[in-house]
Design brief:
There is one protein chain. Helix 1 packs across helix 2. This protein has two helices and nine strands. With 158 residues, the protein is of the alpha+beta class. The radius of gyration is 39 Å and the shape is rod-shaped. The strands form two sheets. A five-stranded antiparallel beta sheet has the order 5-6-2-1-9, with no helix packed on it. Strands 4-3-7-8 form a four-stranded antiparallel beta sheet, with no helix packed on it.
Amino acid sequence: MKKLFLLILISTLCGCATWDKAVIGLDDLINSEPIEEVEPVPEPIPDPVVVPEPIADPVPADGLSGIVGGSNTFLWKPVDHNGGPLVILTPAKYQLTHLMVNGQKFKGPGTRANNERQHWRSTHKGEWWGNNVKVDAYAGTFLVRTWVVPFGAQRKQF
């Protein structure tokens, strides 16, 4: 029954004039190799759009602040003017994100003051840091400058 149905279908679809041609077409169809199905190629997934968050105080890649004037000296004050702990003033020309003092990170400076220099405050007095204190200044991940303070307990200006 299936063969008869297929024979009628093939003769109708191919427009065969005789049954012989329809039977040959049916035999070819039955005896042919199965056709491999090709999976459709998926549409490429577009990259997500990433909108960067605005930066309130952008830090230039070179660490320079763009400030003209101000003091471009580094100052190590082992005791602040009120007798409190260490204060480090970095040159006005730098826009720094953090300092590393003997490997310990000082995060974000206070406001600019004293000739436009960034101020960094410690919880310890300068003497606590010892001698040959290494101060690395960073703008993001970029090392901008290194100072070595010979005696942590003494005021030093570079």
